[in-house]
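Regression test case RT-17, inverse folding.

Input:
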């Protein structure tokens, strides 16, 4: 009798184990299915995010390109207004500064501020500017049109003087990089004399013309200039 009970118990245990195994297999299968769905969802989400990032990048690039184009148009319109009226408010230079290409220029001779070369350089630094440099044909022609007389140039100081040379030959020369420690009382600095340039002692006094980079032209400044011009 005890053997039958034992056998029955074993049959029951086998049946329970089989049922548990089946339930576990089912659970495992369902779990794998859910994991696969989650993996698919994750991959789909990543694809969507990648597409969105690409679209955002493209949109940002289009906005940047549009901003650059608008700034170019604004600069062109402002330049035309400035040619007609030097006092136009859209000019990207401070008041009294002259605008040419991407730079602003301030001749200081009318204030009779003749200074040594080093003092002149410090005065320009006060304006967040530097002494005049001529590095392109466009600037060369602009400076020649100003008919400057005894103005310091931002040429690198040298140890000897030279005879007057035609201003058209100045573009390949070296320009000062603000290493004032190399400048001594015995050095010579460049200056402009109408359509020529030469060197003299850096301790001599000359007129000053400063230059600095022009600010960006703002569209709103052009619109305001138009309004002000119409009121005149």
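Golden output:
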């Amino acid at each position: 009798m005890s053997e039958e009970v034992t056998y029955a118990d074993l049959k029951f245990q086998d049946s329970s184990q089989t049922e548990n195994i089946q339930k576990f297999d089912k659970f495992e299968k369902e779990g794998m299915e859910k994991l696969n769905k989650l993996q698919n969802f994750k991959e789909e989400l990543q694809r969507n995010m990648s597409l969105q990032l690409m679209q955002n990048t493209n949109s940002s690039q289009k906005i940047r390109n549009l901003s650059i184009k608008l700034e170019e148009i604004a600069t062109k319109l402002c330049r035309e207004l400035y040619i007609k009226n030097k006092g136009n408010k859209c000019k990207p230079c401070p008041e009294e500064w002259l605008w040419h290409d991407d730079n602003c220029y301030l001749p200081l001779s009318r204030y009779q501020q003749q200074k040594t070369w080093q003092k002149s350089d410090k005065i320009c630094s006060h304006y967040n500017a530097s002494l005049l440099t001529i590095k392109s044909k466009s600037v060369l022609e602009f400076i020649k049109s100003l008919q400057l007389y005894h103005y310091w140039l931002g040429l690198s100081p040298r140890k000897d003087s030279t005879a007057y040379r035609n201003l058209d030959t100045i573009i390949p020369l070296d320009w000062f990089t603000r290493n004032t420690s190399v400048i001594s009382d015995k050095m010579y600095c460049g200056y402009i004399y109408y359509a020529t340039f030469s060197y003299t002692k850096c301790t001599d006094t000359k007129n000053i013309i400063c230059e600095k980079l022009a600010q960006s032209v703002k569209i709103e400044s052009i619109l305001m200039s138009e309004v002000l011009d119409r009121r005149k």
